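Task 17 of the worksheet. Students: predict the tertiary structure of the chain below and write it out as structure tokens. Keep your answer in the requested format; marks are given for formatting as well as content.
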Amino acid sequence: MHNDGKVVPIKAITDQAHNAPLARLPVVLLQVRDKAALQLRQGLQALFDNADDTLFEMADKAANNVEQNILFEAMRDLRLKRKNIERGYLDHFYEAFVQIGQPDSLPALHSHGYDRLALVANDELERTVALDAMVARVLARDGIALNQLTLRFSALVGQALDDPRNPLGPAMLCDYFLRAGRSLGVGIKVKLIILKLFERYVLHDADQLYGEANQLLIATGVLPELKAVPRRRAQDRPQAEREASASAAGNESPNDSLDANGQAVFASLQALLSPVRGRVAPRLEACEQVQAISTRDLLRLLSHLQHYVPPTPETDDFDLHQQLEQLLTRVSVKSGTYRKIEVVDEDVINLIAMLFEFILADRNLPRSLRALIGRMQIPMLKVAVLDKSFFSRSSHPARRLLNEIATAAMGWGASDDCQRDSLYLRVEKIVQRLLSDFVDDPAIFSELLAEFLAFSSDERRRNELLEQRTRDAEEGRARTALARQRVQQELNRRLLGRSLPRVVVRLLEEAWSQVVLLACLKHGDTSSQWLEALETMDELIWSVQPHTEDQARLRLLELVPGLLKALRDGLASAAFDPFATSEFFAQLETLHVQMFDTPVVGGRVIHNDASEQVLVLDEIVLPTPQACEPQAAQVRLADDDPALLQVERLRIGAWIELVDEDDVQRCKLIASTDRFIFVNRTGLKVREWSRMALAVALRRGHVRQLDDTLLFDRALDSVLSQLRQAQAR
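Model answer:
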């Protein structure tokens, strides 16, 4: 933060930002930025204007003097640092726009994200969970408008943005605020109050922010074909403000956080689920005395079942519907009434059961992982019963935990020793913790998510380090291959069609080629080292050719000492075999002596038979350590072959499964420039193919591409597709 004594008016900051290096940003984007900055500045001013009143009211109701003094001290701190925070916020805001205007440079989140939760204190965890909820509410409410704005920004700047790194996205807006307010010396309780006020006075009007920005871009012809999003009605605002106010006072409940979008999503799911109702009922004939099972009682039944979830090998035999039917029958008989589950709860049960049917049959997941996730069915069902936004909010901690586990374990192979694998043991521990500890407080999912992300982050860093080493080695191999081709060109240009002593041809092909190759790799093919190595090659070739002129023989006499020194130094630098080097120089000395002693008759040199000459007719191909291409590479596919097109669409980070006769192995693509390089989940190289060879392997079924999209989203899409098809019949 800047020194508090140096308060600069916000207008000055705005003027300064206009002089920032934004030449790459289109004019319309600058207009969007400036209009948004005005709204954000007004929102921040409203926040701080109301923060005093809010904190004063809380201090007036404080339970003791200590709490009251803390709140009064927080009020003082806010007044002193208000201008600095407002200024810092806009600084970060303008900086983010500068970054999207620069090639290959996107804004990064500095203060928010679960990746670092386990590395910070519990207060930071609480703060980050609150931030996640704030961002999720904006996305659920105004996500479509934000996505359209992101697409338009991407079209303007010429590089792909995503919603989290959109300078106007809720994640970035929160990030600016956190970074600007780092100097605040207040406790977590006051921080959460200020964050709620930020949500109320800044984030709550995001629809206006996105609506005006989209309209401005549409007016200038930026993706006008995108369907406009209707603005929120004015009568929707007071309710949202009441919710934010209640949250600031610490009275937020799961139902309060279920916004209109979440309600609409679940209502649409219920409409699709109506045909499958009635599957969870007691095995008794219905009687007059029917009593609905309350949600609280249902949670008790599920908690009872939760303790009897079978171990991993028997998970496939666990039928949730059957288990619930047995429990309901037992409860009905005991109470003498027909106990029926409420429609809403039954819909949740059916939907979760269908989701887990998909998960347990998903071939993209390793079998061992499917069995572990299968044991999470009841905890996931309970959290969905408690909070229906589980189905609509992608950032829901329970949903994220499921997705993160599936993503981290994507590389598990059938032959991996799960009982010794740290990742498997970590997931097993999470599952066991849920089964033994989760009753009705969904906060456990946030805690487990934070712990798992910290663990997987460490794992990922280690794996990425090995991946980078593998990538560097492959890039080095590719550079070596190009340099080898360059050396071959120079050798063939000098030797093809010439008759030379065999020993010289062998030296140039087997030894001096390595000297030239090293010069190319270290210094490039325009360097003085490269040119000197080629010059030495030319001088050697010239020195062993017959010369009739006296002047040429004098030049040879002068040339030989320097030539021999250059050859010795070069071969030594390439670590060429000293014994072979000595043998060559002995033969070369003999050749040079012969060149001086060879008689000249009638202007022609009479060759000594001891000098074996060879005529170089075939192109020289330097040996390469690269293994020969599999036989599949010899097959040629048409340019429009589906397998070849699939290879073209492969992205870095994509996972495939290798299907051999006795083994199934998973690996990830890390490079696809010269050849397609795949590594296992620890970063070690597993396989490489040429483009054509990989396409042939895909076509023959030796390779299968894995779907590494988010597990929960994939399962939900599949279930919805099934339900819609059933409804259409």
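Marker's comment: Residues 627-705 form a domain with the SH3 type barrels. fold (CATH 2.30.30). The CA atoms of residues 66 and 680 lie 56 Å apart.
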